[in-house]
Amino acid sequence: MSIEIIPIIDHESYKVNGHMMYKDHNENWISSSAMTDIELRMFRRYKKLVIDNPAFKKHTKATYKG
Q1: Domains in the chain, number
Q2: In this structure, how many other beta carbons lie within 10 angstroms of the beta carbon of residue 6?
Q3: Where are the alpha helices (H) located in the chain, listed in sequence order?
Q4: Labelling 53: which of 42, 60, 61, 65 has CA 20 to 30 A away?
């Protein structure tokens, strides 16, 4: 299974295998629909490596093999 993460608005919203992930007003990441454990795990990995990394000026699409 492949997990595809596409940035919509950097630091605000991302599409994870068709599920929208976005930050709420309390800075918590919320999904618009139920995601599998592997999708959530890969989004957390992407967040740690890309979103939280100040070296990335523009976020890129990522595909993980799971």
Answers
A1: 1
A2: 15
A3: 37-46
A4: 65
Total-model pTM:
0.87
Domain that holds residue 16: 2-65
CA separation (Å) from 6 to 13, 54, 63?
9, 18, 9
pLDDT at 17: 95
d(CA 24, CA 58): 21
By DSSP bridging, strand 2-9 and strand 29-31 are: unpaired
Residue by residue, pLDDT tens for the chain (66 residues) are 799 999 999 999 999 999 999 999 999 999 999 999 999 999 999 999 999 999 988 888 888 886
Supply the Cα-derived Rg of the chain in whole angstroms: 11
